[in-house]
Amino acid sequence: MSETVATTKVAGAGRPIVPYKALWAVLLMGWVVSYADRTVTGPVIAWMISNKAGFIGDASNPATLGGLVGTMFFAGYMLTQYAGGRLGDRYGHREMLVVSLLWAGTMTLVSGLVSGLIAFVAARVLTGLGEGVFYSNDRTLVFNHTPPPRRTLGLGVVITGLSIGLTIGIVATPYLIDWGGDLGMGGHAWGFPLYVFAAFSFLVAAGTYAFFRSRLGGPLKLGPPFLRLLTYALPTFAAILAIFLLADGLKWKDWQTAIVVGVLAVAFIAVIVRGVAASGRSATLLNRDLWLVYIAFIAVLWNLWFFSFWSVQIVKEATHSSLVAAGLTAAFNAGAGIIGFPVGGWLADRQVRRGHGRKPLILTCAIAYSVLALLFGISVRGDNKPSLLLLGLLLFTSGLFFNALQPIVHGMTGDMVPAAERGSVFGLLNLIAEIGAVASPVVSGVLRDHTGSWAPGVYTAVGIMVASVFLYALVDEKRYLPGGASHRQA
Questions:
Q1: How far apart are CA 108 and CA 214, in angstroms?
Q2: What does pTM read for this prediction?
């Protein structure tokens, strides 16, 4: 098949052919700015802790409080996952992606302008609510407009932007903060990287809009999906912020606040799952195999945001290095995705072309990652003094397997449902899996503050990944392969 065009049509677009590799490039840039916008929080908080500055630096338990900020962001990010997919199915996946980028850019800018803890938390929650709709619509566009033999490769290539964004967020933030200091921003120098990343988000949003308009479906109507998302996001935002304000007023411990946020998230999931069941789509979206995948993927988001949020601080404390040196070392984990994501997709597509399933690759990647991450945890124990080289090597090699795992799971998930339900299934996958992202930063921060070491947080992340191996092993993937039961029924 030609490498310049895909043969699938855009419903109602009047343009049956789209250059799918150009689409990959546009979506990849969306991932870059989206992940830079969210990753910046971790290095900013690490800077506040190191410099005893801002609204984190003078806290008695800065790691726990910093983790709680991350938890609040991911609570917002989590709770628009399914809504974003459903809105994309209704209003258009192109429209939802542009709305997400514009929203994220605006709230990232606001995050840099505020100065107090509550205002910052509010801005980050709103950022998460807007960014939450990106994932399910991006995955669906890749699936729908990439030739089937290259779908998983496309999923891997596009999500490489995640690693690039993570790397930029981790590496560039300390330098941008220093630059902000040189520009006379003083104690608010931490806001400068947020301004820079917001500007790039607006540029990518404009480019994405122009590409979609000219090459994928013509004019876009952003008003209706934006208003519909707003009606969903504002009550959700109010609920999350009310919990934070209540906790602040009643002087709850930070981990207690995180538990309440977790309960809210579980309640949202229950309501959404009940709605899906009531719509008569349980057999399609809530069958046994998909539930196994949904729950197993919690481990991916837990590990992703444990290392993305805290890796700089872990390396800094373990090696007694500077923030810049720690950031450069931690970036090996994020940068590994530049290789891992596309290689994982390529291997999975090759398996499918040979008539095999993706599950063996999933199990191999999850087991290999668990072993390497365990070695990292042993290395950062309090009685060890690891070198930057050793930690960088472990972060990179474990990252290869971890990042390869993700597009393989995405590819298997997309093939488990009809095309019309892909926005919904990817929304449900990330909605449920984001439990890991919501819990990971604050749980890891609590463990650090109570034990004085980051090793227990690493061991917890590894244990959760090991549990996911057993869940993936139970998935009956053969039903969804060509000639399987689900295909025969279709």
A1: 28
A2: 0.78
